Amino acid sequence: MTGNGSAVGDISRKLAGSPSGAGAARPRIGVVGDLLLDRDVDGSVTRLAPDAPVPVVDVAEVRQSPGGAGLAALLCAQQADVVLVAPVADDAAGQELRRQLAGLTLVPLGHAGPTRRKTRVRSSGQGLVRVDDGGPGTPVGIDAAAVQRVRDAVAGCDALLVADYGGGMTRDPLLRELLAEVAERVPLVWDPHPRGGDPVPGAALVTPNAAEAGLAARGLPRPPAESDTEVPAVAGVLRRAWDAQAVSVTAGDRGAFVASRQDDTERTDGAPGVVRHLPAQAAHGPDPCGAGDRFAATVVDRLARGDGATTAVRDGVLAASAWVAAGGADGFRRGRAASEQPAERSGPESLAELGARLRASGGVLVATSGCFDLLHAGHVTMLDAARRLGEHLVVLVNSDRSVRRLKGPERPVVPLADRLRVLEGLGSVDAAVVLDADEPSDAVAALRPDIWAKGGDYTASDLPEATVVRSYGGRVVTLPYLPGRSTTGLFSQVRASEPVPASIPSTMRRSS
Q1: 47 vs 56, 124, 397, CA distance in Å?
Q2: For residue 225, what are the contacts with CB-CB under 8 A and spacing of at least 6?
Q3: Would you say residue 170 has pLDDT above 80?
Q4: Is it true that the peptide bond before 187 is cis, omega within 30 degrees of 0?
Q5: Contact 192, 212 (CB under 8 A)
Q6: Are 366 and 389 within 8 A, CB to CB?
Q7: How far apart are CA 190 and CA 188, in angstroms?
Q8: Over residues 159-175, mean pLDDT
């Protein structure tokens, strides 16, 4: 297949591969928390009700999907095998949750009251009202046998996420004992809620937002002084109060502030330790809901793969921003609904269709471009970093004709078919697409990736396609550049090392 609108080879997502492309198996992640059923009611308003001055919504579509710990589990499942432990009500909404979570290992617990539902009513994309019902959702029937069942289910997990939505899971004393045990064995990420219990000691990372952190700090037995109420200081105060290995306070467009035990213990004078600031790029979208779940799912995945807290939070901030830019929870639900529809295909898949299909399967779509001639460690490092920004990575690969125009008549060294085959073999790459143009603006406009990633040897001002990416709300990210690695340098080394017979005239001597 050729041209900007054609994918080459099998571009389905490599479920067995790791985001880093290192070939490691998918981690196993446990998610413990409270389930919700999120519902979106879309319609139009053309009149007021005759009995009151309120709009009448003519419903056009209703979408529903798991929320709370259910959404967090689905996001984790894009990269990992997931065990979800949560109370599940025995009602129609509970059955719908079970159906939509069928791809996960679900460990249901007793549930007090009907399923908690959050229904958002919109007209022409504008929110009118949110209606909450059901609950309280408190776990019931938690005894030694139930706790042992949970313990057995999460025993083989590489990390665990506590997705607290105030239903009562984190206040149950037996479950808290179990969570404290898990925190001693594997990384435990605690996403708190104002109505939930405090994190258990030893959590690898606690992830309140700024409002939750401020409320928690004010509720401490010894609240911080007025001078310590700014977000960075609060992160350190809560880290020590909760005895967590690290606390990350997310602050919207400001990014996140991370206080870690290591940075605290580096101080010998009793003063607060270093709090690291990880900035975010501004993201704008109609629905920021679920950004916290996207953040938490990303950080627990990174910790499960052996990354440190700061690296995990950095990637989580990027993922949350991309989530908002891609339409938030509503965009995710629309994508899930579209993916359940049978596909009708005729002819090769265009870039627009490829982008829509990957987004429909959920998660952040990342793309990059290049010649990728003589694939080397610098290429692999950049592609691994790009893949870690999202759930899908599309690589636009310059055709042989384009490479000759860009690099000269002796390039490419490796023909297009071989370059594509090597890229498709990397666990970090979901799709390789031929780019016949010398710069990718038109291809980017068709694909519409959430994140356009390029190596750190570029700046945004070097990239003509950056304007296109920003025009639809996407983001441009430059990635670490591994110095001393370049195809041109390798090519020159090969030429210099080749023995040239003296009988060949110098004008005919060239590298093959």
Answers
A1: 6, 14, 53
A2: none
A3: yes
A4: no
A5: yes
A6: yes
A7: 6
A8: 96
User: Which residue, among 207, 201, 428, has the nearest Cα to 309 in the 3D structure?
Assistant: 207
Determine whether 469 is exposed, middle or buried from the number of CB atoms within 10 Å of its CB (0-12, 13-18, 19+): buried
Which whole number is the average pLDDT over 417-440? Answer: 88
Catalytic residue among 164, 191, 293, 307: 293
d(CA 411, CA 416): 11
pLDDT greater than 60 at residue 14: no
Let me know if 274 is exposed, middle or buried by CB neighbors in 10 A (0-12, 13-18, 19+): middle
Do residues 298 and 185 make contact, with C-beta atoms less than 8 angstroms apart? Answer: no
Burial class (CB in 10 A: 0-12, 13-18, 19+), 343: exposed
Task: Supply the DSSP string of 139-199, one letter for each residue.
Answer: EE---HHHHHHHHHHHTT-SEEEEE--SSSGGG-HHHHHHHHHHHHHS-EEEE--TTSPPP
CA distance 249 to 230: 11
- Over residues 100-151, the pLDDT tens digits come to 999 899 999 999 999 999 999 988 878 899 999 999 999 999 999 999 999 9
- Residue-wise pLDDT for 488-510, tens only, equals 554 555 555 555 444 434 433 33
The pair of three-digit structure tokens given for residue 213, joined into one six-digit string: 């952190």
Cα dihedral angle (450, 451, 452, 456), rounded to 10 degrees?
180
393 vs 209: CA distance, rounded Å: 29
> Average per-residue pLDDT in the chain?
82
Contact 469, 369 (CB under 8 A): no
Angle between helices 231-242 and 210-218 (to 10 degrees): 60
Structure tokens at 368: 């990059």
293: annotated active-site residue = yes
Backbone angles phi, psi at 117, to 5 degrees: -125, 145
pLDDT of residue 79: 85
Q: Is the pTM of this model over 0.85?
A: no
Token pair belonging to 160 = 């665990």
> Which one, of 44, 65, 55, lies nearest residue 289 by Cα?
65
Strand partners, 393: 366
Helix (H) or strand (E) holding 8: strand 7-8
| 3-class state of residue 60 by DSSP | strand
pLDDT tens-digit series, residues 191-204? 999 999 999 999 99
Distance CA 471, CA 148 (A): 53
